[in-house]
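To whoever is on call:

I kicked off a structure prediction for a single chain this morning and the downstream step that reads the tokens threw a length-mismatch warning. I double-checked the sequence; it's 188 residues and nothing unusual in it as far as I can see. Pasting both halves so you can look.
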Amino acid sequence: MMVYFLRMNWTPYAQVYDPLKVGSIDGTDPDPHDKAIIRALNSEYIPDKNIKGKSECTIFVARLYRQTKEDTIMHEFSKYGRIRRFRLVRDIVTGSSKGYAFIQYEKKDAANQAYQYANNLIIDGRRIFVDFECERKLSGWKPRRLGGGFGGKKESGQLRFGGRDRPFRKPLPVPVSKNKMRDQKNKD
């Protein structure tokens, strides 16, 4: 008996945001395993049309110490190029930092430099995380508050995969029959 394997165009990073896939370590789970994924699947999110600037020049900075001052962040990130806009996200009621920010550079090269070299940088005793902004760049994006995003903690059982911090693992090859291979070719 011959064993066949389906060929997949695999990538460790999500090309399109699908809550079901990012909730799976290898992007292949057919069923949601937590309520946040169900919430993300059922939610409608319309990206903010008022966001200015180019998404390829904008980085997302997370895991900031909540008492870190804007000047400290600006000083660290201005090393990579001229900053056009900076936004430290704050709680609407208390005004305190939520621990993440968006930085838009004037040039794409500066954003690429920050992406490459600032990830895992330590600011005020905290190891930060840097990625490109996803809202405008990744089709189907859902933010964390709607059960989406790429974050999450192991303790909560709501890890998300397919992003820079936790790329997908390559799925194990699954043997298939000749009929299934023919169906797959006809589908493509």
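Update from on-call: the warning came from a stale cache, not from the record. Cleared it. Sanity check on the structure: Residues 62 and 100 are 4 Å apart (CA to CA).
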